[in-house]
Amino acid sequence: MQVRRAAETLDYCLDKLSSQNKNDLINSLKDPTQSIFMAAMHLLFLKNIDFPDVPADSMTDAQISITAERYNRGPDIDLDEIIGYPGDYGARILRNKSAIMEALK
């Protein structure tokens, strides 16, 4: 996860963080537990852009792929662009879905 996205996810303004706070944020991203937590928070935010009423454990593969594309391409991309010009990131996530699910256990 990029430092800028981690800051946004935690509701921080990266430009207003002190050098020490930025270093603390960077170090937190190096810790697997904190990094996974921030990524999960960010993924929830991205999921809710297009599928706010869909529980995460009920998402279809197409919804997972769209959310993964937002993770890779940014939250501001239009849904029609994701659908019309899908990248490979969502497809790769789906190809590795079983391994990802196993790793999260």
Structural commentary:
- With 105 residues, the chain is mainly alpha-helical.
- It has one domain.
- The protein is built from 7 helices and no strands.
- The protein has helices at 3-9, 19-30, 32-50, 61-73, 79-84, 89-95, 97-103.
- Helix 3 (32-50) packs across helix 4 and helix 4 crosses helix 6.
- It starts with a helix and ends with a helix.
- The relative contact order is 0.09.
Mean pLDDT: 94
Percent helix among the residues?
55-70%
User: What ranges have pLDDT less than 50 throughout 5 or more consecutive residues?
Assistant: none
Give helix and strand order, one letter per element, not per position. HHHHHHH
How is the quaternary structure best described?
single chain
> The biggest beta sheet, please?
none
The Rg value, from CA coordinates, equals 15 Å
First CA to last CA: what distance? 21 Å
Please indicate the count of domains. 1
Give a count of the beta strands, DSSP E runs of length 2 or more. 0
Number of helices: 7
Features:
single chain; mainly alpha; 105 residues
Note the topology:
Blueprint: H1 3-9, H2 19-30, H3 32-50, H4 61-73, H5 79-84, H6 89-95, H7 97-103
